């Protein structure tokens, strides 16, 4: 379900791996009976209903069912805990010109990437809480 990399790709405006995350949330939030039925049917037949097509845009994230929101929220919090620093510490380092310039070019780039990832995760938390 998750693909080879085992991760979902989030953007500023939408989930870029929308189908994978949508299916994963549905399956993980199913009852045992629903899951058995899902397995017997080899998944869902062509899900073309309009709600499914916009399931994970930023506008629709707040409309997720509570179990899906909780699962997604817990996942985001676990991901944020895996970083060595928090969003504020990275922002402070970016704003401190002297400290930032002491970093190697590679460390500066990594800081920018890490800071962007954390901002997206915090935005997602705000959308689902």
TrEMBL record:
Single GO MF descriptor: methyltransferase activity
Q: Which UniProt keywords apply?
A: Methyltransferase, Nucleus, S-adenosyl-L-methionine, Transferase
Query: Which cellular component terms (GO) are annotated to the entry?
Result: nucleus
Q: Where is the signal peptide?
A: none
Q: Where in the cell is it found?
A: Nucleus
Q: Where is the Rubisco LSMT substrate-binding domain?
A: 4-121
Specify one Pfam family: Rubis-subs-bind
- One BP annotation, GO: methylation
Task: Give the source's domain of life in one word.
Answer: Eukaryota
**The protein's name in its UniProt record:** N-lysine methyltransferase SETD6
């Amino acid at each position: 379900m998750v693909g080879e990399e085992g991760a979902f790709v989030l953007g500023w405006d939408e989930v870029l791996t929308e189908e994978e995350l949508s299916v994963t949330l549905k399956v993980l939030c199913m009852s045992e009976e629903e899951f058995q039925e899902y397995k017997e049917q080899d998944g869902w037949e062509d899900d073309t209903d309009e709600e499914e097509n916009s399931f994970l845009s930023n506008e629709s994230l707040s409309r997720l069912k509570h179990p899906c929101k909780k699962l997604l929220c817990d996942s985001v919090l676990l991901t944020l805990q895996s970083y060595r620093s928090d969003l504020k510490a990275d922002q402070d380092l970016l704003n401190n010109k002297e400290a930032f310039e002491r970093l190697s070019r590679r460390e500066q780039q990594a800081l920018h990437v890490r800071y962007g990832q954390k901002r997206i995760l915090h935005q997602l938390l705000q959308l689902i809480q």
